[in-house]
Specification:
The chain has 281 residues and is an alpha/beta fold. The chain is built from nine helices and 17 strands. It folds into three domains: 86 residues, Elongation Factor Tu (Ef-tu), domain 3, CATH 2.40.30.10; 117 residues, 3-Layer(aba) Sandwich (Rossmann fold); 67 residues, no CATH class. Helix 3 runs parallel beside helix 4. The longest helix has 25 residues. It is globular and about 50 Å long. Bound molecules: nicotinamide-adenine-dinucleotide and FE2/S2 (inorganic) cluster. FE2/S2 (inorganic) cluster (FES) binds next to loops. Nicotinamide-adenine-dinucleotide (NAD) binds next to strand 10 and helix 6.
């Protein structure tokens, strides 16, 4: 059992929790993730390790369905019945001079922070573009600012920073900086759109995929994705891949099928708790 020692509401529907997991914290590296269960026999939720402090790991999640809603119901000192990790490949960052452009959309700010921090600590110059639907959904602004030489904010509704998508700023930023590589993390359509632009600009681009996961060990195939025409498993071969080789359409189709089922289950969950879906949107 893994105790939740701290919990904070970061933005509407978005939570940060600190979970006591000493063995995981000791081995965690930037890019690693864990799979957690909010209840016994519940769905398995993959979450990036945002940071590891002493014997705890920091996780950030958005309520998107029943399982994340159940996770959000837990208050310290509640315990998670299962937590598996650290999982995935933690990319090696070489020290150097080259500038890295980090593009984060919405909750993608959480998985991008440990990677941007790692680049920064290895002496790389980090330029970050952070976008959200509106001002109150912008996450980790101060912490991203600390590790970036420039932080550009965008909101879809214009309530802060540039009025528009994160992709709008890439051409201008890449004209002013000699970008060596791009790391993009956020919703699938955002990562696909970033890759379309960076391909035209010939900028190598890495994306982090949030595929469905079950076992997290490469056995079940739930997290499969086509990369460069080959089937890869996000849990053991990723979660980061060359964005110019990812079949975003195939992955989106698989996620959509699941989301339809998940939405029905979530509507039922909200009804059960007396929340009318029609009123709450
Ligand atoms: P969102 O829909 O609010 O979008 C965040 C930002 O991404 C927008 O403000 C915009 O700047 C950009 N964006 C969105 N669609 C775009 C498009 N078509 N073209 C260009 N830019 C676009 O994001 P959210 O609600 O925070 O995230 C929701 C989704 O992100 C969920 O499906 C979630 O599973 C996924 N997610 C992915 C990761 C990951 O590791 N890749 C991490 C967390 C969340
Ligand atoms: Fe089962 Fe990746 S989650 S193979």
């Amino acid at each position: 059992m893994f105790e939740i020692v701290d919990k904070e509401l970061l933005a509407p529907g978005i939570y940060r929790i600190l979970v006591k997991a000493p063995l995981v914290a000791a081995k965690a590296a930037p890019g690693h993730f864990v799979i957690v269960q909010a209840i016994e026999d519940g769905e398995r939720i993959p979450l990036t390790i945002v940071s590891a402090q002493d014997d705890c790991i920091e996780l950030i999640f958005q309520v998107m369905g029943v399982s994340t809603a159940l996770l959000a119901e837990l208050e310290p000192p509640a315990k998670l019945p299962a937590l598996l990790g650290p999982l995935g490949i933690a990319p090696e960052v070489s020290p150097g001079e080259g500038t890295v452009l980090c593009v984060a959309g919405g909750v993608g700010a959480a998985p991008i922070l440990p990677r941007a921090r790692d680049y920064h600590q290895k002496g790389r110059k980090v330029v970050t573009i952070l976008g959200a639907r509106s001002k109150e959904l912008l996450l980790l602004v101060d912490r991203l600012q600390e590790v970036s030489s420039e932080l550009h904010i965008c909101t879809d509704d214009g309530s802060a920073g540039h009025h528009g998508f994160v992709t709008d700023l890439i051409p201008e930023v890449s004209r002013r900086h000699k970008i060596e590589e791009v790391l993009a993390i956020g919703p699938l359509p955002m990562m696909a759109a970033v890759c379309k632009i960076t391909k035209q600009l010939s900028l190598p681009t890495t994306v982090s995929l949030n595929a469905l996961m079950v076992d997290g060990t490469g056995m079940c195939g739930a997290c499969r994705v086509a990369v460069g025409g080959e089937t890869k498993f996000t849990c053991v071969d990723g979660p980061e891949f060359d964005g110019h080789l990812v079949d975003f359409t195939g992955l989106a189709n698989r996620l959509c099928q699941y989301r339809e089922y998940e939405q029905t289950a979530y509507d039922g969950y909200r009804k059960e708790r007396g929340e009318c879906q029609c009123l709450n949107g």
